Request: fold
Amino acid sequence: MKPAFSVIFFTVMSGCGYGQLFLFGVVFVLDPLLIARYEALLALAIGAVFVVAGLLSSTLHLGHPQRAWRAFSQWRSSWLSREGVASVASFVPIFALAWCLWRGADAGALRVLGATLAILAVVTVACTARIYTCLKTIPAWHNAYVLPGYLLFSLLGGTCWSWLIGEWTGGARAQPALIVALAVACAALKFAYWNHIDARPPAPTPESATGLGRFGRVRSVEAPHTEENYLTREMGFVLARKHAARLRTTCLILIGAVPILAAAAQLVLPGRGAVLSCIAALAATTGLFVERWLFFAEAKHVVMLYYGGVRP
Reply:
């Protein structure tokens, strides 16, 4: 499929934002006093900005952005609508936490709000992933790797940004071991995902769809269109194998090797945490943009069989 920058920006930035909010929500549950008030307020603000920027970007992909509010009405059947509802609901604990931190609420209230925020962050990212996994017509998305991948990538990005915030504010810092574990898990899962889509069973073909395969190759007598249309433009994007291989390697380096090396260097050079955390956050975020671009570019819709395209 044709990668749309607005959707890529939305999934990456909102994912990093919700990953960071989830992490801070868990910290509030474990120990509300572990994070200083101003650091917590800054973290909530940055996470909210990431989420809002992503959500606003997603409306640019709509044919009529002014009608975006209608998406909330289909929550019973649409994962897109459920994502919208969950994302809006997540701002309730965000603002409530900010208010409680500013006013100096007790630890019990902070724990409840932190748990609520963490749960809604996971639910929102999961709904985003389900938008794609529910599409049986796109085999590259309809598999068991996509949902955990979205959750892990979100947590990796959020953890790296949390490390950066902690270093620059002099407050709580993400544990290097956590970053290493997440980076390894993300790289391993993405590698397994690529192996899966490369080695998956043959998808439907014109021969299997019509039942005429025993007679030979099936082709249309006439082309189904005379010029480019929406489907051929959006669903017919083709990525060369050599470019895909290079981008995959780049992605693994940025989301795996760089954060791992930065976290390891933190143990040896503790005084360089501000620089190392910046490198890790920027590398992981850039890697997520590459990963998400490939996620769309390598996906093929079965409708392209009708237009004489390659198998999805």
